[in-house]
């Protein structure tokens, strides 16, 4: 079956205002009940069958409507192809349906991916479902309704289009009211279509699928109602393309393809549509939507699907956890799509509610989208809530509708903006995951403050999001941990509350000073994270404590949670390491504490780098000071020298290089800077000149030999050269005048201070002997400020003055000081010998060459080849990432400023990289239906690594390129596969791994006796003499005290809760037991004065419990004397061993048959045995798998026995029916004709009976033909004629059939037909004259100069395709555009030939291939309408000859 069904108020009611703003309205009568009081569940698991509140709602609805539609989820297991057990989903669904006993339970549909079945049930059928052992959950099949010119630039999509990011090679799925594939805006975009539209008479619902084949092209065409233009409008926003059609603008992903899926049905019932005025309407069953999403999931290997868009919804939820629980079936398929890398983008709804979202957009794993205006404000109609992830334009959006374009508004219009955004991000970074693309959007959007609630949510900005994906060395990560799904109390007692401003709509709190609650985030990528917390303000929580265990240690923060709630509050930046347990604990040690949600954003600081470029020269014996600077990383920084500094200099931890250098020369040394996370190093060169050889001139802005024009003011910039620095914003100038007393070349330096408003290209002009030179510097670069920066080396003459001028012509400039340094005649340029450090393949390499003498600065080069990956910088630093090992002889050359050079020889040793290996040798087990993540690790080789695998992973788990295995496995079993790691230079290593997926099972029985550690009490409880106690004693109290048992729940489940007490004559007849469970608090009154009830387990009821919840059972003496002894919790599905596969599907002889045996209860795994007779051809193994090809029809009886691990056994007498086949019958009623000397082959076929078949004939076949035993007649007949004979067939039993038949052998039709101009089957109009042209076909050719037509009429004897040729003669007067017209079966074609070309005359020229039927009349014509034409002959050659 093709569709699932679940009703939500999905009525496509688009209420169009006069301004053409169409807002989605939802049928109030179909909305789920709002939650009034809740106890926060601890960790989300799909609820066991159904919550108590939802069960009561559906029972009440059954009272009113008598029948309801529900979606049930079955338990299911499967294994890989190498294992024995293999459950057929289809067979399991049918078996379940057959197992139902209620007469009014009706099987409607089933899903293809998830173990879901849609049923119609009455009250008795509903009760049967709730008790069925094969079910996981039951929920209502609800109904839902469907909920560019300025918006595209608003989100930055136009900028991405201009850069080539257009959604190319990406696909978007649109699940809506159908898409007009013929619209110009969507031309050629639809690559697949499907229709899931239900007919259901009780609701007056009819399918709008136009064809029986729901997957054929056109199956998702828009329906006929006016509101059916909705899907075409949504598709245009997501992927419309204006190229060549005059549209005002493009869609978001203008080059993306589309999968169109129709999910709506036509409703003619006013009760379903909401009113008579809105009838008829279109609504969508939840089951059809699930079927549509399953179809999208099935296409994941055929198309690169970035997102599925659902612009629809119904029903309002102000709590995320409740939404997930009620919509578990929809959440399951959304989770599957998410694990496959496909985002499910859903509109938030149009009720104007600022603390609630519509379903299914409220589901935690969906990408719900609210609507904004062009001014980046929330649209007045848009829903929003604390857990809404994104906002996009949705007001006044112009897009395609059938027949043109319209303006529409609604969150339906906002969602496709986000769906298109996912396509653009997927194209921009194809290796990114769906979570990384979502994080790129949530971390970069423009902040929009929501009215009413004050929530701050991101409006999408695509250029920033793409930059976050592309330009970063780490992927975007945005982790949110909500207390409903993550963490657990460590101690004390927490109370839950519904809170509209809390994240997800609820939070928990504690006033107990001993209370502590722990979050343990699973860190996917090591790095620095911005840590934030969310809470709704609570009086008294003004000193809550938060303890953070991070990579660098532990930190404690005190939070004031008594105010400023309802948004993310940044707590600081912390380093976390992937794979490590980092705990975040909330405690109430100083005041009340609120626990709600945590957020970790990978802020990905730029890599740590040393930003200082060059060191200014030093002079021996003179004071030297230079501040080193760094950028990126996580400050503060710490500096150190990895190699010896020149004598007399030192480097402190703050990065100050200072001292009195003692000797002159050229020095190189490596400096390291470290932040809180990492370290990096850089090699510097420093020239120390001899004191008696140098001359230094420094001029400050306060000295007398300066001049200026314009206004210069004292700057607030830090670290000036002397007392201050100056700045100017106008076109002003400042000059320093240098008086030179010694001829020579001088290095000219400038000193300025940093300020954020400085220009990035401040000009300095230096006058010198050669004229003047202008040099621009970046004074906004903080790394260059407050140090001597070299402007260049220039020649100056003694007894002259020269100016160095800075000006503000390019913006704000700083004027502080300049320095001129010269040296006497240099010594001989030499490279001192030293040993190069050894390098390693794949590891960063740095080495610095040094020189002395000559005139610095120097320029370095190599005259020999360097190892691959290394470069020699002109500054003399050999750096890079070596990619090959070996011993490398190098000849290094240095040149100074005078052109003098020197060279020296070195040997560079590069050792191989460490052996590449995979260090992961074992994977943790997974559980069915639960999120699984495992990160593979490797070592050695050359990072970064990429990962791949061969063999099958468990279905629905994926291995990313970064080595993460993740997803939600649905089937239990063991899968074996091989993973491969590849490093950056192509080296590989493999290892074989196994991954076990275990069935998620309920917990075991829990018994708590009085006095156990997990008990507590108020008042004074005394030992009782009542008998018999559960353990060694029981307790009693008569004065209003209470006794509490707190079970440690490890698995979410439904439990039977029992109490044990002892009898005494003074016990009360109304002793209350309070049970706190997932769905609230229940009080049960017991008669402890009844001796018949004492000394045994007394059932208090059946309740849902989850791990970490505030669960307890409490007895009170408020109504008189009460006994407190023991309590017991028993999982309801921990039943006795029983066979649950009680009905098998029927089979057919000769057809493959498979059936899996299932059991429940006991202690799995199970072993199976059989007594009796299986159908002939079927086999059975002890894992419970029946398979084979049955040979005979009939009903076969046998007995199955199952054994569990506790040696318990259960048996059942069962049967399998193999349908008797239809009578054996030959299918071929006539045989095709044959032709003489042509190959002939025909296959005889039969049906019914028991295959395989044997064949024969009575009579004679044509000469040259034979019949083999498999029924094939073949050969080459040698003569024409007709032969009659009988064909007979027999099966493997006693069936036979015989029919008369025959074969006619025809004479072979001629392979070639030639018609000459002299033949009788020709015709002409106009005057055709014999031509003197050379080489006619036979006899002569003809010609005509003006509007003559000559025709040939070939006689076709054999149907087929022929090549048609023409022959003409050349003459200089012939036209170069002579038209030939060929008529053929189905049409005619005219083509022009060049008869003026002498190379084409006198030969056969091909006109083309055309089909002709035997016995039909056809014509080939030539015309002189374009000038002189020759008519000679035509030839037809059959293609298969």
TrEMBL record:
Catalytic-site annotation from UniProt: 176, 230, 412
Leader peptide range in chain numbering: 1-32
Residue intervals of the Golvesin/Xly CBD-like domain: 498-601, 697-821, 1006-1130, 1313-1437
Domain of life assignment: Bacteria
Protein's recorded name: S8 family serine peptidase
Gene3D superfamilies, alphabetized: Galactose-binding domain-like, Immunoglobulins, Peptidase S8/S53 domain
Peptidase S8/S53 domain boundaries: 167-441
Taxonomic source organism: Thalassomonas haliotis
Keywords from the UniProt entry: Hydrolase, Protease, Serine protease, Signal
Family note: Belongs to the peptidase S8 family.
């Amino acid at each position: 079956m093709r569709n699932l069904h679940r009703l939500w108020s999905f009525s496509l009611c688009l209420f169009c205002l006069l301004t053409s703003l169409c807002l989605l309205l939802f049928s109030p009568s179909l909305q789920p009940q709002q939650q009034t009081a809740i106890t926060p569940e601890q960790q989300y698991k799909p609820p066991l069958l159904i919550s108590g509140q939802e069960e009561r709602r559906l029972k009440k609805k059954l009272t009113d409507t008598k029948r309801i539609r529900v979606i049930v989820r079955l338990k299911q297991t499967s294994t890989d192809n190498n294992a024995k057990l293999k459950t057929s989903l289809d067979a399991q669904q049918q078996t379940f349906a057959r197992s139902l006993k209620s007469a009014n339970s009706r099987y409607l549909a089933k899903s293809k991916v998830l173990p879901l079945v849609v049923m119609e049930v009455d009250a008795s059928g509903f009760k049967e479902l709730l008790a069925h052992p094969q079910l996981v959950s039951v929920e209502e099949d609800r109904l839902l309704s469907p909920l560019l010119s300025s918006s595209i630039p608003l989100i930055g999509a136009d900028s991405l289009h201009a850069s080539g990011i257009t959604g190319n090679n990406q696909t978007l799925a649109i699940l809506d009211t159908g898409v007009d594939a013929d619209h110009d805006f969507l031309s050629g975009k639809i690559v697949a279509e499907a229709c899931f539209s239900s007919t259901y008479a009780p609701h007056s619902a009819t399918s709008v699928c136009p064809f029986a084949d729901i997957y054929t092209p056109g199956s998702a065409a828009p329906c006929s109602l006016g509101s059916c233009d909705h899907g075409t409008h949504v598709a245009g926003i997501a992927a419309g393309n204006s190229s060549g059609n005059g549209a005002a603008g493009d869609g978001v992903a203008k080059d993306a393809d589309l999968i169109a899926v129709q999910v709506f049905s036509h409703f003619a019932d006013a009760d379903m549509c909401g009113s008579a005025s809105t009838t008829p309407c279109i609504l969508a069953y939840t089951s059809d939507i699930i079927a549509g999403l399953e179809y999208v999931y099935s296409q994941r290997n055929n198309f690169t699907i970035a997102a599925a868009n659902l612009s629809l919804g119904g029903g309002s939820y102000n709590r995320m956890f409740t939404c997930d629980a009620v919509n578990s079936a929809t959440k399951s398929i959304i989770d599957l799509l998410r694990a496959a890398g496909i985002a499910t983008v859903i509109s938030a709804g149009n009720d104007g509610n600022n603390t609630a979202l519509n379903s299914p957009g409220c589901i935690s794993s969906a990408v719900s989208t609210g609507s904004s205006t062009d001014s980046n404000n929330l649209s007045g109609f848009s829903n929003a809530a604390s857990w809404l992830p994104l906002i996009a334009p949705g007001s006044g959006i112009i897009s395609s509708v059938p027949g043109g374009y319209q303006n529409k508004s609604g969150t339906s219009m906002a969602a496709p903006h986000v769906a298109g955004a996912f396509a653009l991000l997927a194209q921009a970074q194809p290796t990114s995951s769906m979570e990384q693309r979502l994080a790129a959007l949530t971390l970069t959007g423009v902040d929009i403050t929501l009215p009413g609630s004050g929530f701050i949510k991101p409006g999408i900005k695509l250029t920033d999001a793409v930059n976050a994906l592309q330009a970063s060395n780490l992927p975007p990560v945005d982790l949110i941990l909500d207390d409903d799904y993550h963490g657990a109390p460590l101690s004390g007692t927490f109370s839950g509350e519904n809170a509209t401003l809390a994240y997800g709509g609820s939070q928990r709190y504690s006033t107990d000073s001993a209370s502590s609650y722990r979050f343990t985030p699973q860190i996917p990528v090591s790095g620095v994270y911005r840590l934030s917390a969310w809470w709704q303000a609570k009086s008294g929580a003004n000193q809550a404590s938060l303890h953070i265990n991070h990579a660098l240690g532990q930190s404690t923060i005190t939070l004031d949670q008594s105010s400023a709630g309802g948004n993310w509050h940044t707590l600081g930046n912390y380093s976390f390491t992937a794979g490590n347990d980092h705990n975040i604990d909330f405690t109430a040690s100083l005041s009340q504490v609120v626990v709600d949600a945590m957020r970790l954003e990978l802020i990905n600081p730029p890599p740590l780098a040393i930003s200082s470029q060059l060191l200014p020269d030093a002079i021996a014996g003179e004071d030297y000071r230079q501040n080193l600077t760094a950028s990126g990383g996580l400050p503060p920084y710490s500096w150190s020298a990895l190699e010896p500094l020149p004598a007399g200099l030192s480097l402190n931890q703050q990065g100050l290089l200072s001292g009195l250098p003692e000797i002159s020369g050229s020095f190189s040394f490596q400096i390291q800077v470290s932040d809180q996370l990492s370290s990096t190093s850089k090699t510097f060169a420093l020239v120390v000149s001899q004191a008696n050889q140098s001359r230094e001139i420094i001029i400050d802005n306060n000295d007398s030999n300066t001049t200026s024009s314009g206004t210069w003011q004292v700057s607030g910039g830090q670290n000036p050269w002397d007392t201050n620095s100056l700045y100017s914003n106008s076109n002003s100038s400042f000059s320093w005048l240098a008086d030179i007393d010694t001829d020579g070349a001088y290095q000219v330096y400038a000193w300025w201070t940093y300020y954020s408003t400085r220009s990035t290209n401040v000009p300095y002009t230096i006058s010198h002997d050669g004229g003047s030179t202008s040099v621009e510097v970046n004074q906004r670069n903080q790394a260059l400020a407050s140090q001597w920066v070299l402007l260049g080396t220039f020649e100056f003459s003694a007894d002259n003055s020269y100016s160095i001028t800075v000006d503000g012509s390019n913006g704000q400039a700083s004027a502080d000081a300049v320095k001129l340094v010269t040296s006497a005649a240099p010594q001989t340029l030499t490279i001192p010998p030293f040993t190069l450090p050894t390098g390693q393949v794949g590891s960063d390499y740095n080495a610095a060459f040094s020189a002395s003498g000559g005139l610095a600065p120097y320029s370095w080069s190599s005259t020999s080849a360097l190892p691959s990956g290394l470069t020699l910088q002109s500054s003399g630093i050999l750096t890079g990432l070596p990619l090959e090992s070996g011993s490398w002889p190098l000849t290094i050359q240095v040149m100074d400023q005078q052109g003098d050079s020197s060279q020296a020889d070195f040997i560079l040793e590069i050792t191989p990289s460490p052996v590449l290996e995979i260090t992961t040798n074992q994977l943790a087990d997974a559980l069915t239906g639960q999120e699984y993540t495992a990160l593979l690790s490797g070592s050695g080789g050359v990072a970064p690594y990429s990962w791949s695998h061969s063999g099958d992973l468990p279905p629905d788990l994926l291995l990313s390129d970064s080595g993460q295995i993740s997803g939600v496995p649905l089937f239990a079993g063991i899968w074996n596969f091989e993973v491969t790691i590849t490093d950056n230079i192509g080296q590989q290593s493999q290892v074989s791994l196994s991954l076990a997926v275990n069935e998620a099972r309920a917990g075991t029985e829990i018994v708590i006796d009085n006095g156990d550690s997990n008990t507590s009490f108020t008042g004074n409880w005394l030992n009782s003499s009542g008998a018999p106690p559960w353990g060694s004693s029981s307790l009693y109290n008569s004065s209003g005290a209470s006794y509490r048992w707190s079970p440690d729940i490890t698995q979410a489940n439904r439990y039977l809760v029992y109490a044990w007490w002892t009898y005494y004559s003074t016990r009360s007849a109304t002793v209350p037991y309070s049970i706190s469970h997932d769905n609230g608090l229940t009080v049960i009154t017991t008669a402890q004065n009844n001796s018949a009830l004492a000394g045994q387990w007394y059932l208090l009821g059946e309740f849902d419990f989850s791990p970490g919840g505030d669960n307890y059972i409490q007895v009170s003496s408020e109504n008189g004397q009460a006994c407190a002894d023991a309590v017991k919790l028993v999982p309801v599905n921990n039943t006795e061993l029983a066979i649950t596969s009680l009905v098998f599907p029927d089979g057919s002889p000769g057809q493959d048959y498979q059936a899996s045996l299932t059991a429940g209860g006991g202690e799995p795994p199970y072993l199976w045995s059989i007594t009796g007779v299986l159908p002939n051809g079927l086999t059975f193994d002890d894992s419970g798998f029946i398979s084979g090809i049955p040979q005979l029809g009939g009903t076969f009886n046998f007995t199955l026995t199952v054994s569990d691990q506790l040696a318990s056994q259960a048996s059942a007498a069962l049967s399998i029916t193999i349908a008797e086949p239809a009578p054996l019958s030959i299918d071929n009623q006539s045989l095709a004709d044959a032709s003489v000397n042509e190959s002939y082959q025909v296959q005889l076929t039969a049906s019914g009976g028991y295959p395989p078949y044997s064949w024969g004939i009575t009579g004679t076949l044509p000469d040259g033909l034979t019949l083999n035993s498999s029924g094939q007649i073949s050969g080459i007949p040698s003569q024409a004629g007709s032969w009659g004979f009988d064909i007979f067939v027999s099966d493997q039993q006693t069936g036979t059939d015989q029919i008369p038949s025959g074969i006619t052998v025809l004479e072979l039709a001629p392979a070639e037909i030639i018609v000459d101009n002299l033949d009788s089957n020709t015709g002409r109009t106009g005057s055709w004259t014999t031509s003197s042209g050379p080489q006619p076909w036979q006899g002569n050719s003809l010609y005509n100069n003006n509007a003559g037509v000559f025709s040939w009429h070939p006689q076709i004897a054999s149907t087929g395709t022929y090549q048609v040729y023409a022959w003409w003669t050349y003459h200089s007067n012939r036209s170069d555009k002579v038209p030939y017209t060929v008529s053929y079966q189905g049409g005619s074609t005219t083509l022009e030939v060049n008869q003026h070309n002498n190379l084409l005359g006198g030969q056969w020229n091909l006109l083309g291939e055309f089909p002709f039927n035997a016995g039909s009349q056809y014509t080939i014509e030539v015309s002189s309408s374009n000038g002189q034409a020759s008519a000679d002959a035509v030839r037809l050659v059959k293609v298969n000859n």
